[in-house]
Amino acid sequence: MDKNEIEKIRVEIKSFHAKTYEDLEFFRIKFLGKKKGILTFLFKKLKKIPDKKRKNIGKILNELKKNVQDKIQIFHKKNFIKGEKHYKYKFDPTIPGKSIEIGSLHPISIVKNRILDILKMIGFSYVEGPEIENDWHNFTALNIPIDHPSRDMQDTFFLYKNPDILLRTHTSSVQIRYMKKHNPPFRVLSIGKVYRNETISSRSNFMFHQAEGFYIDKKVSFLDLKKIIQYLINSLFGEKAKIRFRPSYFPFTEPSAEVDIYCDDYNAGWLEIMGCGMIDPQVLKNVNIDSEIYSGFAFGMGIERLAHLIYKINDIRTYFENDICFLKQFKNDF
Fold first, then answer.
1. CA distance 294 to 254
2. Is 53 exposed, middle or buried (0-12, 13-18, 19+ CB in 10 A)?
3. Residue 278 belongs to what H/E stretch?
4. How far apart, in whole angstroms, are the C-alpha atoms of residue 315 and residue 310?
5. For the segment 214-234, what is each residue's pLDDT rounded down to a tens digit?
6. Which residues of 56-66 are buried (b: 16+ CB within 10 A; e: fewer)?
7. 125-127 and 186-195 as β-strands: parallel, antiparallel, unpaired?
8. Which one-letter DSSP state was computed for residue 102?
């Protein structure tokens, strides 16, 4: 083990440069491999060197070993990435890191949360109900018997018959479930998906989200209903929003009305946004609430339609296309 041999090893270690992971592995094995590594072999020969020289040579070998380990560490930090056939160096540490984008709520969720916040401030509590319903909760208890012509108003997805199990056509079924288990007074809001067999177009879909509120207490009147709806619409659309009530028909409310809002955009004029009315005494009777003592009202609205007016979205199908560019618009709106 002469000085020329040591110097040759030192120069080779210093000048080494890895282009691939295989280069780095070959370098490691050549010098530090357990069986044929150059430095491993020289360390084994130390036993045969006289004591006077052993200490000095051992110091030199440890220095060379550290140089090899430092080289390996340097190239490991450059992050070789395995490709299809071999490892390739693909990472540039000078490139700025990618920022983490903050996600956004869906416009349907934003409007839903607004309605919840608005109505919770005046005492409404939030409840949910099943999307798969039976005939009694979805129709019969709401004053819609089997032969009633109003059933033709909703083309229903029946899952099976006798007993009739279906996808709920409105969240009014939650009214029935809640009123059966609780005694008045109460103010309740329910929001969820409802299903109707409708042709998918820019204005309709087989599924949409409906928000329904109902309030039952002593001496509740239609004036109370109008005040609540005016408060809700003004909170959503601003104090200058214009609304009107038109007489209408729903089998579970009497009297009934539809609520329109005036829309200046695209010369749309008056647009219907919800239905409402005083809960029919027969509905109260069906859930064992005395209609001689208590009265109440209910109102229901489609959230997609409200979002359409708030955000000026023209096509209802856009809500369900998962278009990232579309959804990014709402990241600062909640």
1. 14
2. exposed
3. strand 269-279
4. 13
5. 999 999 999 999 999 999 999
6. ebeeebeebbe
7. parallel
8. P
